[in-house]
From TrEMBL:
SUPFAM superfamilies in the record: Periplasmic binding protein-like II, Winged helix' DNA-binding domain
Record InterPro entries: HTH-type_LysR_regulators (IPR050950), LysR_HTH_N (IPR000847), LysR_subst-bd (IPR005119), WH-like_DNA-bd_sf (IPR036388), WH_DNA-bd_sf (IPR036390)
GO cellular component terms given for this protein: cytosol
PANTHER family noted in UniProt: HTH-TYPE TRANSCRIPTIONAL REGULATOR YBHD, LYSR FAMILY TRANSCRIPTIONAL REGULATOR
Family recorded in the similarity comment: Belongs to the LysR transcriptional regulatory family.
Domain of life (superkingdom): Bacteria
Name by which UniProt lists this protein: LysR family transcriptional regulator
Species whose genome carries this gene: Shinella kummerowiae
GO molecular function, one term: DNA binding
Domain HTH lysR-type residues, every copy: 3-60
């Protein structure tokens, strides 16, 4: 039974994505090449590693075993690379970090910049994921650490504080509710709405379903500035992080009012495996972000 590191990376990418196609794209392989490697792995091991279904693939019991050991092997290889980077010019290390929408768009750009400028041999592979998916990925070892909302269960991970994220309603300055100090979420559900095309909107949509209603989204955009621009001309109301609304108010005729619902004020947490040591670069970044928070 012989698997090389490329085989292990491909297999983990497929297991994480639940798709051979997406796993192949992640590892820069064609679908045909990825499928051939999988067949060779299964033939070499004499066991079926994946169950193919209409909605994608799932690891078999043998596949779960391989994925577990592959994570350990690749973690050790990553740790070796990070430690050797101090002695070998040009050898770079990469830190896989998953985070929710607010962390990626509003907090991380400013906090990452000085650290990356001081650690030019380290790259950060940053991806947006819903908090529940981030917790699962960090627990599986497919990310060094994550940034999540405290609304999700972070067991069995350790956590450190990162930031406080408050959601606000953005609305035109002449809107009847613009002068209120707070707004309850159910009070805006009858209004036209400008949504966000990202993980944050999933969280907001779930809150609407909990009260038995659905937001009337006229459009969904990829940036908070885009949402605020639509709100400014009367397309509808929006919900964005308070820091984003504060920034957009400087140049647009909009107002922002805090949501009074408890779910709209979230503590953002750094989550990581306490039982598995991080490689040196990831540990330094984690400490930097925790201190900054």
């Amino acid at each position: 039974m012989r698997f090389d590191l490329a085989d292990l990376r491909l297999f983990l990418a497929i297991v994480e994505a639940g798709s051979i196609t997406h796993g192949a794209q992640t590892t820069n392989l064609s679908v045909a090449a990825a499928s051939e490697r999988l067949r060779d792995m299964e033939a070499s091991g004499g066991v079926q590693l994946l169950e193919r279904g209409r909605r994608g693939v799932m690891p078999t019991r043998a596949g779960d075993t391989l994925a577990h050991h592959a994570r350990l092997v690749l973690h050790q290889v990553g740790a070796m690379h990070a430690e050797m980077s101090e002695h070998a010019r040009g050898l770079r290390s990469s830190i896989r970090v998953l985070a929710n929408t607010a962390a990626i768009t509003e907090f991380l750009p400013e906090r990452l910049a000085p650290w990356l400028a001081d650690h030019r041999q380290v790259d950060v592979d940053l991806a947006e994921r819903p908090s529940r998916e981030t917790v699962a990925a960090v627990a599986r070892g497919t990310a060094a650490f994550g940034i999540v909302s405290d609304a999700v269960d972070t067991t069995p991970l350790a956590t450190l504080p990162f930031a406080v994220d408050r959601l606000v309603v953005v609305l035109p300055r002449d809107h009847p509710m613009a002068m209120q100090k707070q707004i309850a979420f159910p009070d805006i559900l009858s209004e036209d709405y400008v949504g966000f095309a990202g993980a944050l909107q999933d969280h907001i949509d779930q809150q609407a379903l909990r009260v038995g209603q659905k937001l009337h989204s006229r459009v969904r955009l990829r940036t908070f500035e885009g949402i605020c621009r639509q709100v400014a001309v009367g397309v509808g109301l929006g919900i964005v992080p308070e820091v984003a609304a504060r920034r957009c108010r400087r140049g647009l005729p909009i107002a922002s009012v805090r949501l009074s619902d408890p779910w709209a004020t979230r503590r953002l947490l750094l989550c990581f495996q306490e039982t598995q040591p991080l490689d040196p670069a990831a540990e330094k970044l984690l400490a930097h972000l925790a201190v900054s928070g």
